[in-house]
Amino acid sequence: MKKWSIVSSLLLLILLSQLPDQGSKIHANAEENDSDELVDPPKIEDKLGAVPHGLSTDSDVAKREAESISRKTLRNSAEKFEFQAEVSRLMDIIINSLYSNKDIFLRELISNASDALDKIRFLALTDKEILGEGDDAKLEIQIKLDKENKILSIRDRGIGMTKEDLIKNLGTIAKSGTSAFVEKMQTGGDLNLIGQFGVGFYSVYLVADYVEVISKHNDDKQYVWESKADGSFAISEDEWNEPLGRGTEIRLHLRDEAGEYVAESKLKELVKKYSEFINFPISIWTSREVNVEVPADEDESTEEGTSESTSEEEEVEDEEDGEKKPKTKTVKETTYEWEVLNDVKAIWLRTPKEVTDEEYAKFYRSLAKDFSEEKPLSWSHFTAEGDVEFKALLFVPPKAPHDLYESYYNSNKSNLKLFVRRVFISDEFDELLPKYLNFLMGLVDSDTLPLNVSREMLQQHSSLKTIKKKLIRKALDMIRRIAEEDPDESSDKEKTDVESSDKDEKKGQYTKFWNEFGKSVKLGIIEDASNRNRLAKLLRFESTKSGGKLASLDQYISRMKAGQKDIFYITGTSKEQLEKSPFLERLTKKNYEVIFFTDPVDEYLMQYLMEYEDKKFQNVSKEGLKLGKDSKDKEVKDTFKDLTKWWKDVLVSENVDSVKISNRLDNSPCVVVTSKYGWSANMERIMQSQTLSDANKQAYMRGKRVLEINPRHPIIKELRERVISDPEDESVKQTAKLVYQTSLMESGFVLSDPKEFANSIYSSVKTSLKISSDATVDEEIEADEAEEVETPKEVNEEDAAVNEDADTEPSYKDEL
After folding, report:
1. Residue 271 falls within a domain, yes or no?
2. How far apart (Å, rounded) are the C-alpha atoms in residues 110 and 114?
3. What is the distance between the alpha carbons of residues 606 and 619, in angstroms, rounded to a whole number?
4. pLDDT tens-place string over residues 776-789
5. What is the CATH number of the domain that holds 560?
6. Contact call for residues 570 and 659 (beta carbons, < 8 A)
7. Cα–chain-centroid distance for residue 795?
8. pLDDT digits over 481-517, tens only?
9. 265, 284, 303: which is the final residue of a domain?
10. Is residue 318 part of a domain?
């Protein structure tokens, strides 16, 4: 036992003596490595140009990330997918586009990043833990450049995307906007509008030939989406890059011809131009040189004294202590930092006097994703105070969206963004404005609504009705102001008061508005009874006295004849057709003005717009037209009483309600009008063209047809004479029917039996050409049956001969 204890003690002493040597060796190795390479890899922010808040990584992770950044090929382990057909077509258009303004890619990526940040901030209202802690809670957009590898990265700390989201949003399932945008581009559309169709991401291929999207959602692992725009993309679990925590980073491997986007100055310029009013800070990782004071060695200081250099030497004496401070020199050092590019205060929080027209135009372009040169037609920036406090900014776009009326009643889409205490809540809430104003762009920032708001809560919230009412009033005032400021809409007296520069800029603006959004005003008159009169003032139309320009109801009333009580109008398919209508003959002759309504929605409009400024509307193609009394009316009626009674009996099969003397005709023999509260001829045609129309149900709404005759016309006068002499004459009855059918067609109705009408016309032509009514069409000369049978035989014999020749002679195929 004693021997074993002695041996173990000796071994322990030997081991302890070796430890200091090993420690000194490790220390020595560390000192050697200090000069060459750090043992621990540097943090991302240590002058490597990456995000400064990144995590510390080991050497393997740093190596894998460097490989990932420099690669331009899809990872072998990634899961491959094919792009959906419409997306492939879209990408082909973009890649092969000769579009010169490639700058739009950056604004589209920043816009998408802003949307992702909006979503996570909204979810955080009800679940604060969803934001995480530390850097993850910072809602920001960061841009970083790798000039050496020509890689541009845009990162956000938004909601991020799961694997399923990456597949759905970036490849296989095309949104409705994809098809619409492709069609627009193929018909000569502008690529600049790509953001309005929801497919702005694909604009990256204007400048990049390989794109990586690294994304981390709270509910999934971190994934990498990558594509070379060759018809396919790949997704793999991210094992190469540093953990994002949450959010998305897009890496663009720039093409050789897109080298200008590696310059910091170019990116700063683009952010200022397109994304100045994004609601989240946009920062760029930038380098700059600063002067730093460092201790100066005595040898160096003597050299610097003899030769001029960029650094300066300073020697300072402490007057109080009389001691000299150590000598220092100033050297230039490159530092990296985040520079915020959009430090402009939210525009709607400023007073309207502080905001310039150019700033309003810039903010509109950012909000609407419309970066054309056109400015919004008008805007309204106001603050509402009282029980309900909110700030709002509304814009009238210069052009209507491509799908404005496609799903008018089924769409919940709204162009109005809702903020609560500067926090974005939703842009899918359509209760703040009625549907007929859904073309307006803008935002509402309320201090009254609760932050943890939901769609259901908003619908029931007491403040909502007040906000909606004020928004409608301000919106209509804004549209009315376009008309008031337009010189074409003003009277000659008002025109002289307008400055020439403003006059040129505002000229024709309301006509432009009406051509784009006039149908919305009409729909408003139908839907919004409380604002019907306000909207009627915005109504525009052409008339018999407008001279090809648009006129208002107020202008019409100012031109009314003395004693005129009704506003006359007529509906149809085109102005040119209506100008030749027989309904206008007497009205035009007596110098009455008649409004032309040529839009199908006008028929529905006039069912709701019954009067304006105590003047009733009168459709001149319906019963009830009054143009003043004539002392001879009763006498004329008595003279043609026999004809009208006889004609009604002749047309009993045509469902004619009555035959009357007309007060609206001048040159035409007759015309067919409808009852006052039934459908007009134009409305009948519109309803018949409906896809799911029911002819049986429509019969109840058809107006009763009344044949009005012109007692001064020679045809009518001759018919009267013939009826008096022989009321049973069949030729006279046929003539009366033909005259009715002709007037029915001229009045805009569709004939129920076109064949009968055609036969009547042909009979009339025969009579005028003095062809006997018994004359028939010559029968066709048919070929003999024998010839028909022989012909196939001859053909068969020829075929047989050809077949024999083919058997005896070698074919071309054999020769080959």
Report:
1. yes
2. 6
3. 9
4. 888 888 765 545 54
5. 3.40.50.11260
6. no
7. 66
8. 999 998 887 654 444 444 555 666 778 899 999 999 9
9. 284
10. no
Residue 599 in this model has a pLDDT that exceeds 80: yes
Q: Sign of dihedral through CA atoms 286, 291, 294, 298?
A: positive
Q: Where are the beta strands (DSSP E) in 607-651?
A: 611-612, 615-619
Sheet holding 441-446, edge to edge: 378-384, 390-396, 441-446, 416-420, 423-426
Co-location of 112 and 257 in the same domain: yes
* Spatial CB neighbours of 574, under 8 Å, sequence gap ≥ 6: 598
Q: Identity (one letter) of the amino acid at 634?
A: K
Binding residues are 108, 112, 156, 161, 169, 175-177, 196-201, 248, 455
**Cα→Cα distances 390→235, 293, 366, 381, 448, Å:** 45, 52, 22, 11, 7
- Dihedral angle at the C-alpha atoms of 90, 92, 96, 100, nearest 10 degrees? 20
Please identify, among 485, 515, 550, the residue that sits at the C-terminal boundary of a domain. Answer: 485
- Do strands 423-426 and 222-227 pair parallel, antiparallel, or not at all (unpaired)? unpaired
Residues 6+ apart with CB under 8 A from 219: 162
Closest CA to 425 of 142, 124, 150: 124
Question: 266 and 145 share a domain?
Answer: yes
Indicate yes or no: pTM above 0.70: no
Question: What DSSP designation does 711 have?
Answer: T
CA distance 371 to 359: 14
CA 165, CA 144: separation in Å to the nearest integer? 25
Residue 97 has which token pair? 């586009």
Q: Tokens 């008031």, residue?
A: 484
Q: What count of other Cβ atoms lies within 10 Å of the Cβ of residue 205? A: 24
Tokens representing 725 are: 């002499």
Statement to judge: residues 247 and 99 lie in one domain: yes
Contact 569, 607 (CB under 8 A): no
- List the structure tokens of 418: 């809702």
* Annotated binding-site members for ATP: 108, 112, 156, 161, 169, 175-177, 196-201, 248, 455
Residues 208 and 124 in one domain: yes
Residue 364: closest CA among 351, 380, 341? 380
